[in-house]
Amino acid sequence: MRHVVATPVITPDQIDASNARLEAEAVRDYAHLGEQLARRGVDIEDILADIMAFKVAVPSWGMGTGGTRFGRYPIAGGPNNLFEKLEDCAVIQQLTKATPRVSLHFPWDKVKDYDELKGFAASLDLGFDAVNSNTFQDQAGQSLSYKFGSLTHADAPTRQQAIEHNLECIEIGQKLDAKALTVWLGDGSNFAGQSDFTRALERYLDSMAVVYAGLPDDWRVFMEHKLYEPAFYSTVIQDWGTSILCAQKLGPKAQCLVDLGHHAPNVNIEMIVARLAQFGKLGGFHFNDSKYGDDDLDAGSVNPFQLFLVFNELVEAKGRDPQCFDPAYMLDQSHNITDPIESLMMSVNSILQAFTKALLIDRVALRGHQDGNDPLMAHATLKEAYDTDVRPILKIARLRTGAAIDPLGVYRASGYRAQKAAIRVTQGATGGGIV
Ligand SMILES: [Mn+2]
């Protein structure tokens, strides 16, 4: 029972001392931006309220340093088990107050006692978000291999094993008050002719219908598409088209999950977001960024304008359907050369910046320019919002929620990782999966 109460992480004093130094300047900058926005007819306090309410989940598997197929560079003080990963998640929540929930991945995150896990998380001010199943690799002691597929495998017993794993994930998730299951599978083929596209998808739908039937009333299942990898010729759920067809076939609790890195290069992802939202099928989001493929780089680090355009669609969709539009937001990144805590805090900041800027778009003017066939002014309306320096709003949001005005500065000054390096002696295989 050594994990029942968490050890203190960064003390409130450390945050307060830093905020005391930065507060006066932040308040002045906020007041100045407030004046500028008022001239544009925007009440900065309305924007601030939305930013303070925005939450994004962090992935347990993102707390360990990731790697590539060429290798991995562990950092001293990295987490060795789920409890240590939760301690790291707690630091991000403590310093940003925007990440109160953690997404778990099974069987990686299996523990003996889920009540203990829940209590430990609660003592760190953390809860749990969507649970993720894993049928893209074989586990020790697993009776049937997923080498040639899982939910779409040609053999019924292998499909059944994958179905049962997903049902077990739902069962565990219920113990942790999660409300959604995310299913990404690597099923596909490496050779033309290896797999019958149609029969593979039929098997997927049959398997997912059983998983769907196992969902509690207030749960949803998110289907995460991905163009390629680990299968390099064809993937069963390769894009949003296949995903939405399956979601429509399965029923209202089935929705699509958009991982920003799971598309072909240059695909118009914001348009996919709009389409899925229009048909009530945008269930969740995995934020990251990419240059070439499923790079799992930090959100907003390569293409912050795309992130802004995605949030433009999310704000638009929320405006159309404020009651029902409620996607599950999560970060899904692999941190290969940075401290995952630092990367995730920077990513939260990028996401909040994109969201804030999207909230500043003058939607009445935009619609007028769209309907009046004035492409230049329509685009200029977006750029007016995008070019606004919204950092003062994020700083005041953090100040008012009890987070750190400067999360990275407080984290670096705290020496958290060095302290953990003295305690966390071993460095096990806790690498982030790329999902
Ligand atoms: Mn993902």
UniProtKB/TrEMBL annotation:
This is L-rhamnose catabolism isomerase. Keywords: Isomerase, Manganese, Metal-binding. The keyword Manganese applies. SUPFAM superfamilies: Xylose isomerase-like (SSF51658). It comes from Asticcacaulis machinosus. GO terms for molecular function: isomerase activity. The gene is rhaI. InterPro entries: L-rhamnose_isomerase (IPR050337), L_rhamnose_iso (IPR013451), Xyl_isomerase-like_sf (IPR036237). The lineage of its organism: Bacteria, Pseudomonadati, Pseudomonadota, Alphaproteobacteria, Caulobacterales. The keyword Isomerase applies.
